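USER:
Working in pairs, take the chain set out below, taking as long as you need, and write a paragraph about the fold.
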Amino acid sequence: MSDGIRLCELSELARGPLGFDPFDDGQDTVFAVLKDGKVYAYTDICPHYGDTTLPWKKNAYLDHAEKHIVCAAHGALFTIEDGLCVSGPCRGQFLAAVPVTIKNNTVWLTESEAGENKR
């Protein structure tokens, strides 16, 4: 039984959020953020507009204060812990959470999620 798709070492997230291309789509489709010892992962799509990615450059997922996830295109702000939009055009909507597990200090996209999205 596989652990899923390997995203990164936990220590890599300590330096800041990271985007990943786990299904070889040619661009980051998932990102992960470490906050207070917990990893939060989401699809890299703003709920305001169905195909808009969040960062303005690679791995730029947080606002200047590093308190919220930010959509560079719309200025929307999302809580890190649950992906809730607290400011912007999609207020009240959520980023799509992606289940991850941590095993031996490695972050994995869970097997069920990997199987559902495999192309």
In short: Residues 5-114 form a domain with the Rieske Iron-sulfur Protein fold (CATH 2.102.10.10). Residues 113-119 have pLDDT under 50 and may be disordered.
